[in-house]
Amino acid sequence: MQTAFKTAKHLRLGSIRTRLGLTFLVLLALIAGPGLLGVRQLQSMGEVTRTMRDEALPRILAVSEVERALTTHKLLAERHVQSTDFRQQADMLRQMRATEAQFETQLDRLRTDLLGLTSPRRIDRIERHWQDYRASLAEVDRLMEQGNLRRAAARLQGPTMAAMDAAEDELKALIAETRAEADRLSTRVDAEYIKTRNGTLSAVAVGLLATLLAVFWTARFVSQPLLRISAAMQRLTRGEDDIEIPHLSQREDEIGILSRAAESFRGKLVETRLLAHDLDLERLRLEASGAQLRATVHNMPLGLAMFDHQGTLLIWNAAFEVIWNIPKNWLHPDQTQDTVLAEMARLCPKEHRAQFAQTVQTRLAEKGAEARSEIWRLTDERSISGIFQPTPDGWMLICEDITERVTVEERIRKLARNDSLTGLHNRLSFQEAIEAALQDSDAENPAAIMFIDLDRFKSVNDTLGHPVGDALLRQVAARLRWLVRENDVVARLGGDEFAIIQHDGPQPEAALSLGDRIIAQLSSPFEIDGHVVQIGGSVGVALAPLHGDTPEDVQKHADLALYAVKEAGKGHCRVFDPEMNARQQELHALEQALRHALKSDGFTLHYQPLIDLKTGRLRGAEALLRWRHPTKGPLSPAEFVPLAEELGLIQPLGLKVLDMACQAAMQWPDDLKISVNLSPLQFHRYDVAQDVLNALDRSGLPPERLEVEITEGVLLDHTDATLTALKRLRAHGISVALDDFGTGYSSLRYLRAFPFDRVKIDAAFVGELPSDEGAGAIVRAICNLCEAFSLNVTAEGIETDPQRVFVKEAGCSFGQGFFFAAPMPLESFMAYLAQMRAA
Fold first, then answer.
1. CB within 8 A of 386, min separation 6: which ones?
2. Cis ω on the peptide bond leading into residue 703 (within 30° of 0)?
3. Is the per-residue pLDDT at 599 higher than 50?
4. How many other CB atoms are found less than 10 A from the CB of residue 299?
């Protein structure tokens, strides 16, 4: 105050202009300085806020997306290797590709858009580890495609996960950098806010002080004209912003200058108050955000409890109480972590309660800022995961009830290793069991690998339906489990294929004994839903390691033994013999030669004449397929037609026979027919009627000159489809003959239901004539039956004149056999035809 009075005393010596001019210069300096400082602080605060919004937050989001994509891809890769369902594998592959795209997109964004915030070398290292991981994962996929699941799993858990861990380590370092940057910006925001608030308060304080000084100097040195300005300024300082300053600015003296200065002061004060109001609104918004954060923590589905560095409970939510069955209002602030952990351990099994607290203490004692996790199985069968996360002032525990997820994962693991229908081991676990058997067995104590195939199972499925078939498979599995020892392995490989690994006993005697018991059990009737089902079984055996030192070799040899059983007539057990391998090689060579002959026109047709027994005249011929093997010479159709059926070559082979026969018949007189045999598979798998009609169109042969011959095997399955095809052929004028009648599943309903034109008596009956009375009775009965249905009868295999006479008198209209002529090539048949016509 003494300094002020000294200054006032000095100012009294000048004019009002001088005194007030100096006063207001000081006043403006005191107001403008803090005001400009406040504006600069607001600009700085805006810059920090924009940095947080435009740079730090996008970087945090991008790093989070990269971390989530990396974790998701890792989980999908592990499940993809564990899964055996190709549909699940395909779905997981699609998800992995989407995750890879997301990962690479976010990483590129970090590299380009946010380059100034992120170390390029760290992103390069993450990308390099990612590429190593993807390359190793590609090798895992290749191993899976080769069926080597064990190596694929080992590859995944080894180099693949090592590359993934390296990428995760680099990513964690990047996350730490990002968090540090965010914390730094947050600290800057807080500092800038404090500086802005202090500057504003300083500006307000300086303004008030300046106003008081102005009033003081105006009242003392300016006299009455300035009282009005003084009163207005006082009201202005009380917050009356709408007050009008006395209009004295037109004056040229010091009073006018003072009036204009008052107007300027009023504007600055209003601006400052508006700025303070905005700052108050920002403070309220921040307080509301804090309240929203507390509400989010309280309502989050994960359980959360936070403790300070002294182990005192700070924060918890309702989900934490629910997960650990803690009574409501039992928890309270300042509660110790030991008390809380003891309450949590109450839900653990008694023998694990002490270990629970010890595990928590161990996790808290571990160095580093990384989160650490545990999974607890509680007495109520729930599974709880816990994540221990260090905080700057202590630690927090995040809990989740993962019971449903654990149950699903256990069910998936079981489905991956067990057959869903029978509960037996599936192909994957059986493969692992063979690998273990190879390790545990030797030449003196081999293990028996037994492949079992159900006979006539397809007929059960087709006639009684798949539910009965499934029930039959379950009963078969139960019988197989009952037959084996506890340490033996029983598996279902798929369809009606089963397998057993027999560990103990002298081999191969023990395996053969078990195989006989299996066949006996499978041959016993099954009672299912009121149906009595009769099937059978065939068993092939290979000994490990005598018959192979790899699972693939042992299974291949067991399969060869099973194939040999089926080829020999099914219904028995057989141990692998090296000759079977040679037989398999022989069949493979036969297959290659068969395919080559089909492409190179290596097949020919021989024609056996069909004779009218009443007139002795030639009525046509039957086309018989012949093949001269390059090394084996002529082969019977019985040796290669079944192989063609098995390989799916019967349709092109049948088309070739039709074309050759129809084209040959076009060279004959118009009154001669050509007969062509059709395979059952041509009816069951292909549109045989259309194939026949197409052959007629290509050759130009009239339909009434063609006769197709079928066996009773065509009629056993697919009755409706077969009947439709036969009716379609007859509708076009093509004749249909039933071949080998009486040797198969002969049934009168075939003659009644199917549109046959002719029945052929098998040569097995004709060959016994006329001495065998039983064969004679059968031939007469067939002729009488066909006469009742108005069907012509052909006798096959006539070799003597007495046989010709007998079948003619019995009622046969036509005959074939060596008595008339053997099957012959087309050139010989043309000569035979000319001879018959000339006679």
1. 373, 374, 375, 376, 397, 398, 399
2. no
3. yes
4. 10
Of 170, 168, 179, nearest to 56 (Cα)?
179
Q: Are 119 and 111 in contact (CB under 8 A)?
A: no
HEC secondary structure over 44-109? HHHHHHHHHHHHHHHHHHHHHHHHHHHHHHHHHHHHHHHCCCHHHHHHHHHHHHHHHHHHHHHHHH
SS (H, E, C) 201-250: HHHHHHHHHHHHHHHHHHHHHCCCHHHHHHHHHHHHHCCCCCCCCCCCCC
227-284: per-residue pLDDT in tens? 777 777 777 676 666 666 666 656 666 666 767 777 776 666 667 666 666 766 666 6
The answer to whether 386 and 373 have CB atoms below 8 angstroms apart is: yes
Rounded to two decimals, the pTM is 0.42
In the three-class reduction of DSSP (H, G, I as helix; E, B as strand; rest coil), residue 364 is classed as helix
Please, which contacts does 162-170 make with residues 24 or more away whose CB atoms are closer than 8 Å?
A: 163/129, 163/130, 163/132, 163/133, 163/136, 164/70, 164/74, 164/129, 164/133, 166/129, 166/132, 167/70, 167/126, 167/129, 167/130, 167/133, 168/70, 170/122, 170/125, 170/126, 170/129
Cα Rg of the chain (Å, integer): 50
Span 30-42, mean pLDDT? 67
Q: Parallel, antiparallel, or unpaired for β 303-308 and 394-401?
A: antiparallel
E-assigned strand segments in 392-446 = 394-401
pLDDT digits (tens, 9 = 90+) for 141-185: 888 778 787 888 888 888 888 888 887 888 788 788 777 777 787
**Pairing state between β 447-455 and 536-544:** antiparallel
Which pLDDT belongs to residue 5?
Answer: 42
Query: Residue 452 pLDDT more than 60?
Result: yes
Q: How confident is the model at residue 660 (pLDDT cuts 50, 70, 90)?
A: very high
Residue count of the chain:
839
Could you tell me if 772 and 792 are in contact, meaning their C-beta atoms sit under 8 angstroms apart?
Answer: no
Q: How far apart are the first and last CA of the chain?
A: 161
pLDDT at 98 over 70: yes
**Least confidently predicted of 244-253, 488-497, 686-695:** 244-253
Quote the tokens at residue 472: 């039959």
> 541, 450 in Cβ contact below 8 A?
yes
Q: Other C-beta atoms within 10 Å of 526: how many?
A: 17
Half-sphere exposure of 680 (CA within 13 A, CB side): 12
